[in-house]
Every structure is written in C-alpha cells, then in structure tokens.
TrEMBL record:
InterPro entries cross-referenced by the UniProt entry: FAD-oxidoreductase/Apoptosis (IPR050446), FAD/NAD-bd_sf (IPR036188), FAD/NAD-binding_dom (IPR023753), FAD/NAD-linked_Rdtase_dimer_sf (IPR016156), Reductase_C (IPR028202), Rieske_2Fe-2S (IPR017941), Rieske_2Fe-2S_sf (IPR036922)
The protein's name in its UniProt record: Apoptosis-inducing factor 3
Family annotation (PANTHER family): APOPTOSIS-INDUCING FACTOR 1 (PTHR43557), APOPTOSIS-INDUCING FACTOR 3 (PTHR43557:SF8)
Keyword match Transport: yes
GO cellular component, one term: mitochondrion
Alphabetical UniProt keywords: 2Fe-2S, Apoptosis, Electron transport, FAD, Flavoprotein, Iron, Iron-sulfur, Metal-binding, Mitochondrion, Oxidoreductase, Transport
Protein family per UniProt: Belongs to the FAD-dependent oxidoreductase family.
Domain of life according to the entry: Eukaryota
Species of provenance: Nyctiprogne leucopyga
Any Gene Ontology biological process: execution phase of apoptosis
Major localisation: mitochondrion
GO function term, MF aspect, one: 2 iron, 2 sulfur cluster binding
PROSITE patterns, alphabetized: RIESKE
Keyword Electron transport found: yes
Amino acid sequence: VEVKIEVVIPEKERSKEEMSPNGKASPLIYKVNGTARHYHLEEHPIASNPYHNPKDVVEASVCHVKDLENGQMREVDLGCGKALLIKESGEFHAVGHKCPHYGAPLVKGVLSKGRVRCPWHGACFNIGTGDIEDFPGLDSLPRFQVKIEKEKVYIRASKQALQTQRRTKMMAKCISLSNYNLSSTNVLIIGAGAAGLVCAETLRQEGFSDRIVMCTMDRHLPYDRPKLKKWLFLQSMDSHPEQITLRPREFFRSYDIEVLTEMQVAAVDIKNKTAVFKDGFKMEYNKLLIATGNTPKALSCKGKEVENVFNIRTPEDASRVVKLATSKNVVIVGASFLGMEVAAYLAERAHSVSLVELEEVPFKKFFGERVGRAVMKMFESNRVKFYMQTEVSELREQEGKLKEVVLKSGKVLRADVCVVGVGAVPATGFLKQSGINIDSKGFIVVNKMMQTNIPGVFAAGDAVAFPLALRNNKKVNVPHWQMAHMHGRVAALNMLAHGVEISTVPYLWTAMFGKSIRYAGHGEGFDDVVIQGDLDELKFVAFYTKSDEVVAVASMNYDPIVSKVAEVLAAGRTIRKRDVDTAGFSLFVRTGDMSWLTGKGS
C-alpha cells in the first residue's frame, strides 16, 4: 500500500537551511529544474488503518483487567498468533511479542518507563507505538488495538502482523531519480555496515527524499556481521550470502537507497565536498557520513604470505575457512571475540583446533581473569587446545600452502588453515590528508552529534571516538554492533539539524558452544569484579566496578539481568558496589525480583 503525500512547508520553515543539491529547500518537498518533487510514504502494515482487510483481522478476549498489575507483561494467544500485553500506569498496551532482531521473547525482557528492552541483545521498543528506540535490529514491533469491555481486555490485531512480528517504519521515497547528475549526491555514505544502513533508513524515515548513495568495498549488500561466524555452519547446505543480508535487494530499490559495491574511496576533498574513488571516479556530496569500520591486523611474522591464512571478514572468507577446516588441523591466532567464536564453531568440524594467545587468560582485559578462566575451561572441555603467553614466529609452507605454525616458545603446531584474530585498526588511512580530525590511534573524533570538525561531515561506527555519556563524556571507541546502529541514527538526525545527542548504553553479546555472554556498560579500566553465581557451572553475573561505582555487567544464564542494568544506567542512575551484594542477588535468583538494582539518581 502506498500513500502519496504532498507536504506543504510553512513559510517560516522554508527560511531554514535544508538539504538539496540546489541549495536551500525542504527535505520533504523541493524543486529540481523548477519542478516540484513529491515523495511516497510506505509502511507495512499501515499504522493509520491496519485493518483495511476485514478478513485479515482477529479480535480476542485475552484476560480480565485485574489479571495484570502495573508494570507486568504477559504473552497472550489470539488463536492465529501471539501478542505481548503490557500494563503500565493503569493503561494496557499490546505489541508484537518477539524481538524483530533475533526473535527473543520480550515477555522475558525488562519493562521500564514506557519501553521494553530485549533480554538477549538489549534492543528497546516503545510500548505505545512499537517503534524501535535502541538497537540492534532495524524493524519496529507491530502495535495492536486494545479495548476494555465489561472488565475484560480485548486485543484487535492484523493476522499478518501477528505472523510477521515486525514492522518497517514509514519511509520516504523519490518518484524519479532521472534529474540527478550521476557524479553528485546529497548524502554520501562511505561504508555499508550497520551505521551506514541505519543512517540511510533514518533519513528516509524522517521524510528526506533527496538522493542517498552508499558505497562499500564489499561485493554484497549490507549484511549482519555477527551472523557471519554462524554462517560458517550453513556451508554444508545450499546457502548463499543473501541469507545474512540486513535488507533484500528490493528494499533498496523501493526506497531509492543506491548501493555502489566494490567501490573504494581513496581520498576526501573537504574543500570541494568531493569523494575520490580508487578508480578515479569522483562524487560530489552535500552531507557525508564516514562509516568505514576497521581493518583486521595481519601477522608480521616470517611466512605470512603463505596460502590458507585468513581474516574472516566476508562470506567468501567464511566459506573458504569451513571448506579447508573440515577434518583438518586449525590454528587460531588471538583469543579475541572473533578468534574465540571461530574456535567454538570449528571445534566440532575440524580434526584439531589450537588457539595461540599472548595473554595469560582469554578476555582478561575485557571480562577479567576469573571469568576468562571459566570460559577457557569450557573451551578445553570441548577439545580446544590453548597455547598462552606466546606468539607466532613463523608460518611454514609446503608447496605454497600452510603446513606448520611455529611459536616463539619453540612449539610447532600442525596447521592446514590459520585464522587470524589479533585485533583491528580503524580504516581511516585515506583521511590522513583530508583535514578531518583523527586521533593518535587513527579514530575519527566526533562530538555527541556524531559530527566531525568539518561542517557537514559525520562519522559513525567502529572507526570513531565519541563522548560516552555513561563515562562523563570521555572520548572512547566502542566497536559494538549495537553502538554502530545508534551512531548511524544520531548522525542522520543531525544531518537534518535535529540536535540529537548520543546517550545510549553499550550492549554486546557473544555466543560460544551454545552459551551466550551478555554485556552492558563500558568497563575499561575496571579495578574490581564482583561475581555472583557459580563460574564453574557457567551461571553467573559479573559486576565490573571502578572505585565504588558499577561501570559494566556481564552474565551467563541469568537473563534479563544485563538488560535491567542497561536500563538503570540509561536512566542516568548509579549502581554502587554495595548494591550488588549477595542478599539482593539471592532475591533475584529466588523470585526474579530486580528491584535491588534501581540505582541512585545522578
């Protein structure tokens, strides 16, 4: 369904500086060559009239009004699908019951001040509208009508929405791009990861109807990088990279988001507002987003050029690794998130998996020594052999292909394939002479609105250092999937002069051998770890403290406690070390009560 809307901008609004290749015009309706352009708004399902087809509607009584107390949620069945019924401040709301990201049951999440937070990965949704307010994920929840009759609660819903459990927010689209110069665009986005895609989608959601061009070095449309390692296991089936794309090709066509694949930007000329591509092509822009992410570090040892040594960055990398690793000897260099996750995925397929790491314990700097040792023990019980506190000194080959990995300790490991996960550096080398502010580590420095020091130039994702509200606006780099989404959204809103500042709480997860670790906050520089639960049983919560303040939390098998802490921190409240004592945690274990984690106002 398409609703064609002509937007009339009040005279006082027309005077404001807006975005158009021709100077000043509204982002909603503007003129090209003297011709007024309109845009379409599309949403599935249409929120204003979600029940236009009576056969697609179901209505059911789901409970008595007294069955739910304020602050409670319940998953209810409407016969052809389920909904999440919520009661807050005396009012009932009904939305989709599954998180659109990976399908987590939201009834097990955290309800707080008008929104529900996913228990798995921290995405947040407004309970009144269903709109996504924090990430990861791209889609919102469907919202259903609720009515009260004779003390009974009824939900009226679209059958289609009950089945899909997701809703794409309303977006603008251009009717025609025929008037554009191919070598100029209003918005140019360098990088097609989460930050770039969310930026493009947010612009369209806000009614921006001018040209948007994304360019990427990848061969593929934007894809779900956290799923890339999981995709390793799909290789035995008839699988394709399209299985992990964030949006299908038709989506980009529908909303006029142009994606240039296998296109590398070599330089940015900020004076002339031009991006220069490696092949010599030049494109002018009005607004620029740099979201190039990072580049994996390579080994610097002797023999680094031999075949069958990989950084897993693309679906093609994953395909080759799993093909070569099956029933063979694998050496993984680096106990990073990438290295550990790949080790876990390959442990059942490879003949042997060896992991080489310079530190004494995996994840020591991030999760602490005790949690790191517990994770290491889990890996060892799954046939992964660790070689700690050493490095690779040489890669030996036979007929050009990897045969052995030699360690500085003198140990020689048989190896048919090697996966390198020793960290990454920001992919910002092409900006060195641009005038854009880059710090000593290579990160692009931005303010709270994701703006660089150059007007009209924004940056987002793994390549930036930004002020983290949680840590008193200290400039930090947070290379998390969730954070990249929020960066892209904030950048887009400020391209449209909305004056929005970044304030989200970092949230990440990792999955290994069917176990997930959730993490929220920013624990850099923590000086103590308070452990509750049982590390040996891999059922624990770890609170990371600096001085007397909890700055981060990690958990395994104790959902939704990380999401609860994230909500407390997002509200600007402080959790003290004394607040996470054994008595409060025991109450949570017995009853699920998390009231002891309310924190104190800042």
